[in-house]
Structure formats: structure tokens, C-alpha cells
Amino acid sequence: MLDDRPRRIVVGLAALAAIVAGISMPAAAHAAAATGAVHGIVTGAHGEPIHGWVTVRSRDFPDSEVGSAILGSDGSFAVTGLVPSVYAISVRPDDASSPNGTYPGQYLGGVKDLASSRTVTVAAGSNVDQDVRLVAGVHLVGTLSADPSAHGVSPADATVRSFNPSSSSPAATWDVGAGGSVTVTGTTYRSAPFLAGHADSATFSAYPEWLPTSVSYPASAPGSDVFADVHFSAAGWISGTITKDVDTPGFPDVYIYAVGGWAGDPRNTSGSPDASGHFAIGGLTPGAYTVEFPASPSVDTYTSFWPNAQHLSGAQPVTVTPGTSTEITAELHVGARLDGSVSIIGWDGSHRPVATSVEIYSRNDDGSLSDPIGWGVGDYTGSWHASTLLAPGDYVERFTPVSAGAGTFPPQFLGGLTASEATTVHASLGTTTTELVLKPAVFSSTRLGGADRYATAAAVADAVIPAGQHPAVVYLASGENFADSLSAGPAAAFDHTVVLTTRAATLPASTAAELARLHPSEVRIVGGLGAISAFVAARAGALTHAKVTRIAGADRYETSRKLAQAVFPLDASASALLATGRDYPDALAAGGVAAVTQEPVILIDGRAAIVDAATRRLLAALSPGAIQLVGGTGAISAGIEASFNGYAVRYAGADRYATATALNDAHSSSFDPQTRATVVSGATFADATVVAPLALARHTPIELSAPTCIPVVTMSSIIATDGLALTLVGGPGALNADVAKAHACSGPYQTGIYDPTSP
Known about the structure:
There is one protein chain. The protein is an alpha/beta fold. Among the domains are: 35-133, Immunoglobulin-like, CATH 2.60.40.1120; 138-232, Carboxypeptidase-like, regulatory domain (Immunoglobulin-like, Sandwich), CATH 2.60.40; 236-332, Immunoglobulin-like (Sandwich), CATH 2.60.40.10; 341-437, Sandwich (Immunoglobulin-like), CATH 2.60.40. 17% of the residues lie in helices and 32% in strands. Helix 3 (453-464) packs parallel to helix 5 (509-518) and helix 4 runs parallel beside helix 8. The two termini are 30 Å apart.
């Protein structure tokens, strides 16, 4: 089960770097005036021209590379299109300019890191002249020694590869001289890792006999000798022989995983057996490892974990010790194949093929399903084939439709919609075929609504905050105008409270009653006096005896910015969602995601050519790791997207319903697995502006619907997340009886197949 902490999308601090540095792509007519350039010549310590690459980065954010150039034959470079800011310059010489690593990569001033680099300041319209003189690296001189290796290799027969700490590519490779002596040149780094391997490429070149090590040495004058001995600890090996009971050529690869490690663990490795089935994999840190022989269709064997288990849970660890080779044997067996066909019943009663993705499970001793152990993909003919061979035995198949027009059929098992209804398939040697006709979804629905939009907001608040609980603050927004209300829902969700709505001149009775029930310590009004009058504010304070505050700006955009800055902590937002304030549908779509991920929805003028300065300053203060644009280029211009220099992600669809679905699908990991979905009208703003706190309370997405039917794209999203119990927010005027019956809007295969299990 997922925990209840907010799940967030983190693209990285590069987005913040782009905002703080002012990185943007303004309109072409203003580009020349708004940007500057840096040019110069790169030379070596003796004035010789250097060839290679030069890179310009923001001083404060190492990830924000903003320009680069290839050095000319005379070492010259020019980097243009730089917005006014402070930058660092780095140079990476090519091999011809830096034989044996004479000149390591370095920043301006001959230093290894950006923090220590000299900088250049670029102003609008300026062309900064900045030559670069490289500093030579030091020479590391010493003797190499090593523990006895698994194959009796002498250090004198080895090679040494030098690696920079920030690179996976070797800086250089040297042979070890007599007595194990070695000289390594061209590194400015205090600590440089090394790898030792056998020099005989025909035998052991793929795997080192020793583990990587490092040596530290003091900073020294450029070109000077630094003396330091290097000692290598012996690595371990796993080797053995594979046999199989099927007469096919070849053997599967061998995968080795560190016990207790993780997917990207550097101790994990793999190797290929030779034609006789013998394998030898070295360079292993001493410890325990799991050995896998994955399924191989070309070899006709199924997955096996050593010594002879189909599941990881049955694997036994192989212990690796330094300087030795642990021998194992593995016997692989011919696998069984599963395939089949899938169809649906169309509106005319005929069977129609449908493409599906397939997951294959076995049952645990307690009857529950294992993790997936096989997969398959179907095509437009309805046929599917498992891509994984399996051990003969009993399995359960689960199908997810992927064809257009079949998205309203839920994922289901062979034999039923749930795992308990699933039919067991016995896979024998050879191929076992199954046929499935998908069952349509069966829905139930309930409604949270009232006589009008104000009563609906009160009903939502009642569902979010039970009787007897009194929130510290309650938000009060306009129910007559969407402009100030759109950002209120995510802000209220962040404060773990609710949004109530009001008329500008009078406080509705349902809102007054709910305020009295909630009895908050503060009523926070969103919007100016034109949206909510002083009379309504006074009435709210009198009902609750609470402090009444107001967040308002000169327009809807400033109100949205002020709300985000007042509610959300600075330097802590994982993301920010931007939507146009000229219309409401995209901001409504963003509200549910923003509520669950605890992030702000910020309104902008989507028709502007670039992002406005006030929004950029706000984003710099919030420090979001990601910028998310909600809506297509008709809602938020391409120029605004370009303002973020590639760090903004856009979620958009053909219409408001497809946009909401795209956003929800992209954030599916933020929602708890559910059997219910929250549905609100996408044709009006009133109900959707108050539903964000409900999304947080239930950790469900907000699905937008048309008033008289559920759009096919929305229905597909609901079914894909198993949200077959619908909660409709709004009265019958907002979402009618057909929506309550889960009737989809017109489209292939959808008409008349939905029946709720309750009224």
C-alpha cells in the first residue's frame, strides 16, 4: 500500500536554474538586444592552440549548461545567445591537444570544479572577450602492488586505467613497467580511481582481476611529479557450466545481482557463456550474489535462478571471496509457451478483435498472485503471444485492452474481472492457447451535491471534514466568477482544509450553515472586494467568531501568485503547475493533481509571448524542481514554454477532457490504488473549484465529464485505474442521470454496455 505522504514529480534543480538565471527564449525580434555573447582563444601553457570543446554554465547551477562550441583550429570560440547573467567557462581538450592527459578538463583559472572557477559577466547586447590559458596536470608516479588474483596474474602484467571521478570514460591507459612501476600524467584531481586488468586480451581483458581503488595526493605545481603507491585488492569470480535438456544452439546470458542491492547497483553485472556453456565473470566485490539465467526464446529455456528456481524467492545466494573463483553448475529446462486471442462484443453483437497487453502470474501457497513472471503483447488481430517461456505448470493471465475503442473495457483476468474469479491455465510443453471475450465494465455511483453550487460546496466540505472536527482555516471563494477561485482548491488542500463558495453581495444559507459547523479559527477570503464584498466578509466573521483575512491582487494573476506565495513554503516545492487564467478548464484539470502532490496551481496569461517577470520571480522563490504546463499551445503559448529553456513539461490533449486525462495519467503514481473515481463537470467551473480537498482526502484523481455523458477518453482513464465506483460532485443539472449510469459519449463499442450496480 502506498503511504499517505505527497508523491511528487522531480525533474531536477535545472528548472530552478533556468528561472533564477533568467534563461528564456524571447521573441526573435528582441533576441539580439536581450542577449550577449562570450568569445576568446584557448591556449596551452606554452601558448599553443588547443582543440576540443568549450562549455558555458550558470555559475550557481552546475546542471544548467546554456551554451557550447567546438574550438577552432587556432583555439578560438564564440558562444552566443546568453541572457544577462554570471557564467563559468570550462574547456575539455581533445586527445591531440592533450597527449597523455597533459591538460585535463578544467574551468577558467585552471580549477577542477565550478565553485572555484573564475566567472564572466554578460550584459544585454555585450560581447565579452575572454581568453583561456590551460594549466597542465601533475604526474603521478609510484609503484603498483596487488593481492594474489584468482588466476595468478602478476601486477607487472597488468594495465592501469585512470578515471576522473566525474566520468565513466577512462582518461588514459598505461602498461605497468618493471617492478610494478607506473607513471600517470595529466590529472588535477586529488583522488583518482584506478582499475587493474590482465594485459592478455584473449583471456581476461573483459574482467579485471582486482577491484577499483583510489589514491590521494596533495595539490602540486602544474607539470610536477607526485609520488604515490597504489595497491589493489583482489576481486572474486563466479564461473561454471550450463547444461540444458533441449537440443538448440547457444545458451542464455548470465546475470549476477548483489544480494541486498538495488537496480543500479554497480556490483551488478552480466556475461555470456561460450559455445560449450562455460562462463566466467570477474571483478566482483566479495559478498553474496544471486545468479539468474533468463528465459531465452532462441534457446527454448525458461528463466531459472540458481540453483534451480523459477522465482527469485527460491534463489540461493552464491558467496564470492577475494582472489578466488566460485564454481557453480546450472541445468536449464525447455519452457512452455502461452498464446491466445482476445475479442469484444460490439454494439451490433458481433465479436471484434482487440489488442491487449498480457501479464502472467502464478499463485502463491495462500492463493494470492505472485509478481508477474511473464508478459505478452497482442496485435490488431486480437492474437497475442507470451514473450517469456515458462516452466510447465499452472498460471493466471491478466489482460489490459490497448486498442482504440476498447478502452472502456476494464483490465481483467481470464475467467473474471478479479483475481478470485480467474481461471487457471495449465501450460504444458509446447504451446497452450486461450481465448477470451472481454467483459464490459460494471459501475456504481453516488452523488455529492446540493440544490445549487453553494450547497454542493458545503456537501463536499462535509465529506472531507467529519462532524466534531474544526479546521484552523477555511477558504472562501467566489461561486460567481472563476478568476480568483481556480487556485484556491490546491491551496486549501495544502492546508488540509476546504473551500466554500459565496455570492459577491450575500452569503448563501448553505455556506453560512457550513461555516458555523466547521467553526474555523480563520476564514481566508480569496479575491478582492469585487469578488467578495466587505459585507460577506463581516458576515463570515460574525458566524464563526474567526479572524477574517483576504488574499487579493490587482487581477486574477496577481491573486494567484499571492496565494501561492502565502500558502506554499519557499524553496520546498517539488513542482508547480501553470494554467491559463483566461479560461477555467485546464486549471480545473490541474486542481486534483496539485492537491494530491501538495503543489500550487499558478495562473498566467497564456496568450503572452513569454512568461512574465512576476511569475518568474515567484517560481524562483518557490524553487520548484519541475514546471508543468497544463493545456495545449492554444491555452499556453509556445513562447511561454520556450521561456523555460526546455525545463517545462506540457500536458495537453485534443480537448479539456483529454488534457485532464493526460495530466492524471502522467501522475498515476501519486494516487493510491482505487476502486472509485471522483467525477466533476468540465463544462462549468463552480463544482470543480471546491473538489481539490476531496481529491487529497481520497488520494484520487479528479475526472472531468460532460454534463450528459462521460467522454470516451475520460471513461478509458477511469477504467484503466479500476475506478468503477463513481462519486459525482454536483447536482443533476451539472451531471445528469446518464452520467450517474456511466453512459459514455458516442464512440465505437461504448453504447449501452454500462449498468450501475446501485441506483
